[in-house]
Hints:
Blueprint: E1 3-11, H1 16-32, E2 37-39, E3 44-48, H2 50-66, E4 72-80, H3 89-93
Antiparallel strand pairs: 1-3, 1-4, 2-3
Amino acid sequence: MNASVAIQSLPEAADDEELIRVVDEVIAYIKSTGLNCYVGPFETAIEGDYDELMDIVKECQHIAIRAGAPSVAAYIKVTYRPEGDVLTIDKKVTKHHQ
């Protein structure tokens, strides 16, 4: 695993319920990839191969639009180590959730 990504999708929505519905569809897509992910209150972290993660980031925008959002913004954080492994989600947060 040479990369990890944190994505916060911010779809345009009429109200909070609609915003949550669209974001939930994006999260469902991320979970469907089978990659290790961690859903937090502001963003979802995903681990995997850099190129695959970049494709997922792109598809998250398409998912939000197909779910009915007229527009979507996203904040993305990327850690990439082409010649080795990055720190895992578990190593970063497990000790805080026991």
